[in-house]
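User: Working on a comparison across species. This one is Carbon-nitrogen hydrolase family protein from Cellulomonas denverensis. Can you predict its structure so I can line it up against the others?
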Amino acid sequence: MPDRPAPPARPAVRLTVGQLRVSDDHAANRETVRRAIDTAARAHADLLVLPEYAAGFDPRGTGPEHAEPLDGPFVTLLREQAARTGVAVIAGTVLPGDGERAVNAVVAVTGDGELAGVYRKVHLYDAFGHRESDRLLPGPADAPPLVLDVAGMSVGVITCYDLRFPESARRVVDAGAQVLVVPAAWAPGPLKEMHWRTLATARAIENTVVVAAVGQAGPGTTGRSLVIGPDGETGLELGDQPELRTVDLDPGLLAQVRQGNPSLANRRYRVVPA
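Assistant: Here's the predicted structure for Carbon-nitrogen hydrolase family protein from Cellulomonas denverensis:
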């Protein structure tokens, strides 16, 4: 009997994109997230990325009424379910601020249920007729970038409106990120889907990283989650409805692209907080 070919080597990171519809009902949202983690676990994912404001969302504006502490029900659920399944989770939430305003944050939980870190959104969405700063406090621009190891690849975090600021992505890449995740609740409007796709692609090409831009589905958001390769190729693009999809990220492609396009090595400027 001839020898059977060896199975293909598994890529370093299997990523599940969780494009969820989020409401102002926190208990219902937690159940949606729990099911998403189960789906990611069945797909043998290493990492599940959920949208901005995954704990609770109001398309008219999300503020202190949706805030929960890091030891509250939402992050506790993430930690418990990550420890149960072994799936790391990155998700948007809202933390308490100064009472009048809250903090838009992204939490990263490892596959053993530990809280790896918190990114507090630096660039608030005061644009296109919106005023996040009326309800939210900005995170400190000089806070250390949130970068965590997932199955041997370094994953860095920014969120939503940060995507429009290339220095935000570059600072995370300077901290070692090979994959840039961007939880978002991208607001609809003229040209907004084109901006989303173009900006995500630009951040991938200029930094030679994978960009996983994960949006919300539902009222007040566009969906259209994306996974863009370091060469700018679109590996995944979802529509405007809730959906979970799993993709494999190839570290060999990343190394190959960086060898052919050494823009990070050739750069002449550094990014520092203003």
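For your comparison, note: The CA atoms of residues 53 and 92 lie 5 Å apart.

User: Helpful, thanks.
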